[in-house]
Amino acid sequence: MAICRILNNQPAASDHLPINALPTNKSITMVKFLLLLLMPAAVALNPVVGRALAGAFEPGQLTVVRWLAAGALVAIVMGLQRLESFSWQKWWRVALLGALGMGFCSYAAYASSKVGTATNVSLIYTCTAALVVLYEIATRQVRPGFVLIGGVVICLFGAVVIVTRGEFAQLIAVKPAVGDLWALAGMSAWAVYTVAMKRRATELDPLLLFTVMSFAGSVAFVPVAGIETLRAGLPELDFHALMWIIALVLIASVGANLSYNEAIRRTGPILTSAALSLSPLYTALMAVALVGEELAWFHAVGGALVIIGLITINFSRAREG
């Protein structure tokens, strides 16, 4: 009875279900563990798909296909009648967020993966949390404690290791790869998107928000995809590419979003953020196994610093919270 109230905020179930039908502490713990284990894996798949389809799809084409398919799938399952709850007077705000968070951030990740590595994309994007913390410190939303600042510095130093490939002696002379520049642009945009989503309370339920923003992200990049098609032709959609697209839509888009929301509901934002910091590790493992990427020493060092920095940031926030 207490378990049901804690997890679901629902009335006691003992009046309606036999005792052996109620969830046990062990089963609840396992569900939480699986969520925290699988959620970052779903998020981590996105740059791997971008790398796998780099030769078949241009970045804009893949962005349009991804979010159009994901938005349509959720809209069909959800039921189109629920769109009536949407405040259309404020549609442009949601559309802008969708164009930025769903559209540009995906495009930048795929543009980076096309000329770089999926591992770099994941490691750099994960540093978004450090940028958000810097914004919160600048706007005095959080106190700049020693542990928090230390976590931010460690995380960003890890990003520097990755972008410069560890060439610290020639830090000023080093020219970051084009792929890393795209990843940095996407990370910055994702930080702006994250802050914007935090600052204003939406009137939409999560599924409706996902649907509207997915369509907005897709529509915003139709012109880009059109230009790419004129230049490079239509995407090469064979069985191999189709399987990757299905994984991108079901796992890295819909699955990642729903599992992230469910993880927050069941375990809270601190544990969810801590688990999400492991996504670069998943990306590296999948990139090596699925698309044949080769990891260098700076991936290991930079990745370790990024993950340690993020865990330190989450520890500081948990302690203050």
Rg, rounded, reads 21 Å
* Biggest β-sheet description: none
**Strand composition percent:** under 5%
Low-confidence stretches: 1-23
Describe this structure in words.
The protein is mostly helical and 321 residues long. The protein has one domain (43-320). Helices cover 75% and strands 0% of the residues. The protein contains 14 helices and no strands. The chain has helices spanning 2-8, 25-52, 59-78, 91-115, 118-126, 128-138, 146-164, 178-199, 206-220, 222-232, 239-267, 269-276, 279-291, 297-320. Helix 2 (25-52) packs across helix 4, helix 5 (118-126) packs antiparallel against helix 13 (279-291) and helix 6 packs across helix 7 (146-164). The radius of gyration is 21 Å and the shape is globular. The two termini are 28 Å apart. Residues 1-23 have low confidence and may be disordered.
